[in-house]
Specification:
The chain has 149 residues and is mainly α. The chain contains nine helices and two strands, in the order ββααααααααα.
Length: 149
């Protein structure tokens, strides 16, 4: 599993890399491996080339449903055994249980509502990467672990 630490080209480890940047780098790498241009990938998933560019640079706050669209186009031979929503739901619940905190406490620590935490834990919300980072910080876990466990 990758961590949110990132080796900068200067050789220094940068520790505050967002999930958006990490997934952007992965998407770009997968697109290049698949020999697709940004417009070609955009046409496959129904978005403009500019959206692809912003996603790859980490400038877009992608949602987990959008990530699944990218993965389906770039890794068609690999199906996710469990949707990202369900994996996030399971891992948030697991981390919250390990800390022995309530949904109310998690909502306070993450700056979200109790209803939002409930919806995440039940796979009912298309969560954005920025919200996943808030939950990860509140749960004292790595944001990648919440999605990839």
């Amino acid at each position: 599993m990758l961590s949110n630490a990132f080796l900068h080209p200067s050789g220094m480890v940068k520790k505050t890399v967002s999930l958006g940047v990490i997934y952007g780098m992965r998407l770009r790498e997968m697109r290049i491996i698949n020999n697709l241009s940004q417009p070609e990938l955009g046409a496959q998933i129904g978005v403009h080339r500019g959206f692809i560019s912003q996603a790859e640079s980490g400038a877009r706050n992608l949602s987990i449903d959008t990530l699944e669209k990218f993965f389906s186009a770039l890794l068609p031979e690999e199906s996710l055994a469990m949707s990202l929503r369900q994996r996030l739901a399971n891992n948030v619940l697991s981390a919250r249980s390990a800390l022995n905190i309530s949904q109310e406490a998690l909502s306070e620590k993450s700056g979200t509502s109790v209803n939002y935490v409930y919806r995440v834990e039940n796979g009912l919300v298309n969560t954005a990467l920025s919200k996943i980072q808030l939950l990860a910080k509140a749960l004292e876990v790595d944001g990648l672990w919440l999605l990839e466990g």
